[in-house]
Automatic annotation (TrEMBL):
It comes from Methanococcoides methylutens. Pfam families: GMPPB_C, NTP_transferase. InterPro entries: Bifunctiontional_GlmU_arc-type, GlmU-like, GMPPB_C, NTP_transferase_dom, Nucleotide-diphossugar_trans, Trimer_LpxA-like_sf. NCBIfam families: Arch_glmU (TIGR03992). This is Bifunctional protein GlmU.
């Protein structure tokens, strides 16, 4: 059985983090989110993959190659236009036979759930999740063990079973995809194809997802996913830790990395290869540090994702933030992460003020951002790739 992985989108709500790479290649626990999905599928017994790619697709193919190193095969199929999930799945028609799994490149799911899906015998199976707010999702209505209807964001949901975007299909779905009309959103929706399958009296079942389900739609979802995955990782220490550095809990240190005296690190934390950490810095839990990162003297970092080749100068504080590649923090840069009134922090997403649902959130920083010394960055600030600040500047 093969897995078709939908990975063509840019992830416009993730900007500026996706200014140079596709959303599925954003790092979580120091691996692209797509790699976590592939690893789970391999563990479930999947050996063949079809990646549906589009935006900056060369970043995906360069990283994964043919799959041979992982003992799998990978076919790459270009989706010319992102015209909806049905259109994306339809691109795989010539690459799969009989049954196949559909995974979203931005939805993390366990290997045990994927394995259960592969063992089902119906014409199609939809993964569903019990949720508290089903009106925000596509919701299924059931009849016994079968799905009788799929309703998009109903005002009065008939159940609390939300469509989690993971499917088992047979080849018969492709004919229905070809006959699926445009939705009011001007897209070809796989839920419309599925409803056509249900209306044809096919056997469409559902599998309730009991494990963790992380749908990464907005930048701060990366922090939630990072915290979950770090808790599951076993620490590996390959670098050099000087004798007066303190590492508590699960702290991974990559090859070629130096942890200098006076560094105090509380896990779970993952530090990549060829980093220079300290001296006398404080790295707090749920932090991921990429490769070739420098954390200077008297720096404090808490619950952050810091990507490759970033330099964080001395006397800096960063909390609850996502930092892109090749950024440079001038000495004394401070990132605020908590409102005085304790209310949720709002962020500009695609030009709209959006409630993050988080009381603590710092900066979302694109690639190649440089801050001048003593820069102050307010809560929920988004800094576009290539931007810079002057010494002493306040950024909101």
């Amino acid at each position: 059985m093969k897995a078709v992985v939908l990975a063509a989108g840019e992830g416009t709500r993730m900007r500026p983090l996706t200014s140079k790479i596709p959303k599925v290649m954003l790092p979580i626990a120091n691996k692209p989110m797509l790699e976590h999905i592939v690893d789970a599928a391999i563990k479930a017994g999947i050996e063949g993959f079809v990646f549906i790619t589009g935006y900056n697709e060369e970043r995906i193919s360069e990283y994964f190659g043919s799959g041979e190193e992982r003992g799998i095969t990978i076919d790459y199929v270009h989706q010319k236009e992102q015209l909806g999930t049905a259109n994306a799945i339809g691109c795989a028609k010539e690459y799969v036979k009989d049954k196949f799994i559909v995974l979203n490149g931005d939805v993390l799911v366990s290997s045990s759930h994927i394995r259960r899906m592969t063992e089902r015998k119906e014409d199609a199976v939809i993964t569903v999740k019990h949720v508290e707010n089903p009106s925000d999702f596509g919701v299924i209505e059931t009849s016994g063990d079968n799905v009788s209807r799929i309703i998009e964001k109903p005002e009065n949901p008939p159940t609390d079973l939300a469509n989690a975007g993971i499917y088992l299909f047979r080849e018969s779905i492709f004919e229905l995809i070809e006959n699926t009309p445009l939705s009011p959103r001007e897209e070809y929706e796989i839920t419309d194809s599925l409803q056509m399958l249900i209306d044809s009296d096919a056997n469409v079942g559902y599998e309730v997802l009991e494990e963790e389900w992380i749908d990464i739609g907005r930048p701060w979802d990366l922090l939630d996913a990072n915290a979950v995955l770090l808790e599951e990782m076993k620490p590996v220490r390959s670098g050099l830790v000087e004798p007066n550095a303190t590492l508590i809990g699960d702290v991974s240190v990559g090859e070629g990395t130096l942890i200098r005296n006076g560094a105090y690190i509380i896990g779970p934390v993952v530090i990549g290869k060829d980093c220079d950490i300290g001296p006398n810095c404080f790295i707090r839990p749920s932090t991921t540090i990429g490769n070739r990162v420098h954390i200077g003297n008297a720096v404090e970092v808490k619950n952050c994702i810091i990507m490759d080749d970033t330099k964080i100068g001395h006397l800096t504080y960063i909390g609850d933030s996502i930092i892109g590649r090749k950024c440079n923090f001038g000495a004394g840069t401070k990132v605020a992460n908590l409102r005085h009134d304790g209310r949720n922090i709002k962020v500009n997403i695609k030009g709209k003020r959006t409630d993050s649902g988080r009381r603590k959130l710092g900066v979302i920083m694109g690639d190649d951002v440089h801050t001048g010394i003593n820069t102050s960055i307010n809560v929920g600030t988004v800094m576009k790739s290539g931007s810079f600040t002057k010494p002493g500047e306040v950024v909101r």
